[in-house]
Amino acid sequence: MKDLTKGYPAKVILMFAIPLMCSTILQQLYNMVDSKIVSAYVGTVALASVGATSVVSNTLIGFINGLTQGFGILIANSFGARDEKRMRHSVAGTMILTATITIVLTVAGLLLIRPMLVLLKTPEDIMDSSLSYVRIILAGIVFTALYNMFANVLRAVGDSKTPLYCLIMGVILNVGLDLLFIAVFHWGIQGAAYATILAQAVSGILCMAYVLVKFHSLLPHRDEWKVPRELYGNLITTGLAMGLMGCIVNIGTIILQGAINGLGTSIVAAHTAARRLFDILMILIYTVGLAMTTYVSQNVGAGRVDRIKQGVIHAHVVVTVISTFMIILCYLIAQPVIEWLTSSKDPVIVEPAVFYLKFGVWFFYALGPLFILRCSLQGMGCKMIPICSSILELLVKIVSTSILVPHLQYFGVALTEPISWILMTTLLTIGYIRNAPDKVVVSP
Question: How far is CA 413 from CA 175, 199, 287, 389, in A?
């Protein structure tokens, strides 16, 4: 366990964020390697199949991750307040609610996936392969939930290293199984899906085993499984606020993906490759924001308003420096990485992907403050403003899908997120000023 209520804020935030950075980079690097293996051994059409369905599975996975992050806010708050009984009650509620909601989402996802892909205008030439891939991923969401739940419990009490170690084991296994199932057994993209869920199962079980063996103080006693109704209410509202926020963002992405799918298989493949690299480039600023959720939550519990304000300022400086470095790196590596990812030098695929990257990366200067402010507000217990910002992003994507993309084609796609980031950052800045840390009431 690590106490984030002491020490120089910038150093504390960075030291907590570094394992988060490594975890997220590993996940995205795996996605890149997975895309490379699929494109090299199965083909560009298979890569497009994976890309056409990823927004659907990512919406459900993102909801579960946001849900468990929200639960972690209550755990971190109790840890900062040194209230161990409330902390264990929060862990019990987290386990019960995560299990229940995951079962519901899995069943709903499997029942609705075909009409969702039809609604997304998935090209007919990749519909069958897309369905065969995403159904396996959806069936294995329970393992993703297992990892995310225990990882976020550990992060709530300041341990961001153990989830990283468990993830490393999973990623190594994932790449090995990818090569075995696709290159040796010739299972196609179904092999990639099976490799993913098996690796997630290993990461989740390892993380759970570590908590059970090493963190007895987190485990609820027999009488603590009966969670107080008020705490259940707080867990549900906080978890759903963060889960819905991510879900709203991904719904917008699904709508936008429908427009991208309508631009043809080559553009779908180009966008899939571009997003793989783009997601890696923004990891560092995203994880600094993610670290702020735990940092602020613990300091709210401890009543350290001064540290919250300091931390927000320090985090803004950090993400500005990181954004500058990412812009330079993007211009250096964009084209060779896209060519490697797609296993192609066809300008119809490579040029749109490289343009998307080089244009979008400049708006990291808006995206960094967005992550810092949104996560800080969540840690302060301000639920509605982050949700409103996500709704704003959804509205921008709807407008883009109906106006920008039909008129500007793929350039309209590239414009969509930068516009939403600028508007969201403006809204979050106003929200942070209006809900200053010294107005926060520490939960009893």
Answer: 31, 33, 25, 19
Q: Is 228 helix (H, G, I), strand (E, B) or coil?
A: coil
pLDDT digits (tens, 9 = 90+) for 13-61: 888 888 888 887 777 677 767 777 887 788 777 777 777 777 778 788 8
User: Is residue 4 domain-resident?
Assistant: no
Contacts of 78 (CB under 8 A, 6+ apart): 84, 86, 87, 90, 301
Nearest to 330 by CA among 353, 309, 306, 303: 353
Q: Three-state SS for 282?
A: coil
Spatial separation of the C-alpha atoms in residues 27 and 23, rounded to whole Å = 6
Is pLDDT at 408 greater than 50 in this prediction? yes
Are 283 and 23 a contacting pair, CB within 8 Å? no
Alpha-carbon distances of 263 from 119, 250, 277, 344, 401, rounded to whole Å: 15, 20, 21, 19, 12
Task: Evaluate whether residue 93 is within a structural domain.
Answer: yes
User: What pLDDT, in 10s, does the model give residues 413-435?
Assistant: 888 889 989 999 999 998 888 87
Number of domains forming the structure of the chain: 1
List, in order, residues 6 or more apart from 155 with CB less than 8 Å away: 20, 72, 163, 294
**Rounded distance between C-alpha atoms, residue 171 and residue 174, angstroms:** 5
| pLDDT, tens digit, 9 for 90 and up, residues 148-205 | 999 999 999 888 899 989 989 988 998 899 899 988 898 888 898 899 899 999 999 9
The verdict on residue 161 lying in a domain is yes
| CA–CA dist 406, 258 (Å, integer) | 12
Say which residue the tokens 């109704």 belong to: 229
> Among candidates 378, 312, 303, which has minimal Cα distance to 74?
378
Q: Are 312 and 86 within 8 A, CB to CB?
A: no
Compute the mean pLDDT over every residue in the chain, rounded to the nearest whole number. Answer: 86
Question: CA-to-CA distance for 18 and 216, rounded, in angstroms?
Answer: 26
State both tokens at 205: 């079980």
The span from the CA of 162 to the CA of 23, in Å, is: 10
The pTM is what? 0.78
Side-chain half-sphere CA neighbours of 356 within 13 A: 28
**Residue 444 lies inside a defined structural domain of this protein:** no
Give the structural domain span for 138. 9-439
> In the structure, what pLDDT confidence band is assigned to residue 443 with cuts at 50, 70 and 90?
very low
State mean pLDDT over 68-76: 90
Largest pairwise CA distance in the chain: 64
Task: Tell me how far apart the alpha carbons of residues 71 and 152 are, in angstroms, rounded to a whole number.
Answer: 8
Residue 60 and residue 138: Cα distance in Å, rounded? 8
